[in-house]
Specification:
The structure is a single chain. The longest helix has 14 residues. Helix 5 packs across helix 7. The protein has 183 residues and is an alpha+beta fold. It has an eight-stranded mixed sheet with strand order 3-2-1-4-5-7-6-8. Its cofactor is Zn(2+). Belongs to the peptidase M15 family. This is Murein endopeptidase K. Keywords: Cell wall biogenesis/degradation, Hydrolase, Metal-binding, Metalloprotease, Protease, Signal, Zinc.
Length: 183
Amino acid sequence: MTIECLTRRQVLLGLSGAAVATMLPNTAQASRSTHGVKELHFYNRHTGESSQGSFWVDGQYQADILTEFNQVLRDHRQNVAAPIDKRLFEYLYKLQLTLNNQDEIHVISAYRSPKTNQMLASKSKGVAKKSYHMKGMAMDIAIPGVSTKNLRDAAVSLKLGGVGFYPRDGFIHVDCGPVRRWG
């Protein structure tokens, strides 16, 4: 019987323990690094507040920094903060790595309360009634010195979620929902 006719189980059962062990990835290949620091710097254009910090250190999210970020990224209209999805912070961190840029991220909109989202949706067709902003999963951003086109292209290349392009308004939308793009 040729190897093509054998099932995977038959092949593995016929191999010695040493042979199977050499087929398994080593730990360097199998796991993500848990060493290092991930830092972000936010500036809220509506409130003038900023926050900078290491949100992830050696495999652990830093609760105090995340709480500080949530406050700066709150719904300023209702003065309500909510937890921002950690995947969004990871997305923004990877976006900055892709751009080779460590400058502050200017935030136009992050968390939105349902009340604020409803008010904005009633005034604009560009605001989704079930916006990811209400789940802490979206942010409208700009980075001074980086064109909105380059910012959009870098975000799209990551394939980590939604990317909206608003060049006339000078920002892009990123969210950690399904991969899609518009604008």
